[in-house]
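One thing: mind reviewing this one?
=====
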Amino acid sequence: MRSLRKTLLLATVASVVLVVALLHSWPTRAYTTVDVRQRPVPAVERHLEERLPEPDHRSASIPYRLKESVAGLLARNGCVCEGESGGVNFPFAQLLFPRVSAHSLHTAFEASELEEMKKRRAKEYQGFQLRSQTPVDMLMVAEANNPLQYPTQGVEVRPLKTILIPGLALQELPRELYTVNLTSTLGTLNVAAEVEGVKVKGDGEMHMTLSSNKLLHLNRQLQFVTYTNTLFHPSTADTVQFETEGHQAMFTIKIRHGVTPKLYNTGPRGEYNISALVTIATKTFLRYDKLQDLINSVRRFYPTVTIVIADDSENPQTVSGPYIEHYIMPFGKGWFAGRNLAISQVTTKYVLWVDDDFIFTANTKLEKLVDILERTTLDLVGGAVREATGYTATYRQTISIEPGEEEGDCLHMRRGFHHIIQGFPNCVVTDGVINFFLARTDKVQQVGFDPRLARVAHLEFFIDGLGSLHVGSCNDVIVNHATKIKLPWVSESESDKTYAKFRYPPASSDATHTKNGLLYFKNHFQCLTHN
């Protein structure tokens, strides 16, 4: 009996100790509730819009002459896609004398579903705008002869951290009392030091007032003003109002985490170690003979470079060997899904994308492509593909988006490039390139490939990456393309027939409708033009 009481006593003591320990270790911080829902334009942004200066009505009667050469470059309130008419039809006419054609994208949907599709797209687009825009994107105009001095850009704070606000000052004519007010919305204002002769009111709050009868003392106090972010968001901005009698200014403080680097250990410095820097990725479907030719050609020049293969053949064959990774997918999963799978397995700094019917030659110098990415800000650089006829293509494309209204934006694609790259005379800056390119692995993974594009797709990747991918193209790094010329006495195999059926669907197929439907809904385009 005594042993039982002793056991119960020990258990009670242990329980009390455990509860005390838990209470002691329990976090005591009071957590605030933050509304991160998508909301209409905040009051501070409406206030910014209201403060945009109205045109001086006195200037309405002043005559002016429109300069068409410049005014024509300005964006319009809407956009249209217009093609070129006329021209002569003969073989290779489009190749030699390319004409611009225009396509409406809403035709990807049946008339009965189009209105509902427009409503859903408008709702999604509104949500996208609310998520992607911050006060940093708002227009702010500095008033003339404003005595307030403040930072115009470059002020940044980590979420829930504190900084000194640089550059605050008042340049005012003599008066009895100098007063300034500061107001924030996502954090609090305070002073890191108190200056003699300056009255501080509201320190530690969202609205703070500083006043003094000595301007020099007030400006000294402004050097110690701090901002503390109190409402957590990983990447946004606060708009701070700064005002004195009769004058008001606004500036933004970026609130965001620092970018976490993704660094790659490429070994000792010296000549580029392609095996440590580059992984070759490809997608295959049925064409194992051509895939083997690709592998054999790679091994002639780069025997230890890893080759990653994504395969969605119906009856996959084994593809093995040193430095080969073969991943099997569901049958017919598709082109972009295969790209995603292959690139998801890359662990090197760069990934080289190739088609499964390419052939490496002495002109396929990956070192040149690595060199330009190492020495420039480019994220991706394409090479050239040489056909059996000797024709070499780079497929350089410029891509631009013309803002539209409710119907959507206009997508314009043209053959060509923007600039020649200094120091690399054979290389240019462009927006889209051919299916032979070297890219920073993390940037390609960041953009990704839409797996809904299963049969017909290429430039859609560059459209999705517009604004985040810095793209180049070099015509002196060349890979050969296996011949597609069919000899009349050689019969087409069943696998070739199956491949052609999947690879080259008719223009009226579901694949084409899917592509146009995604451009219309996902990317908010109403039409596209290209040559």
User: Anything to note?
Assistant: DSSP finds 14 helices and 26 strands in the chain. The chain has two domains: 64-74+141-256, 274-530.
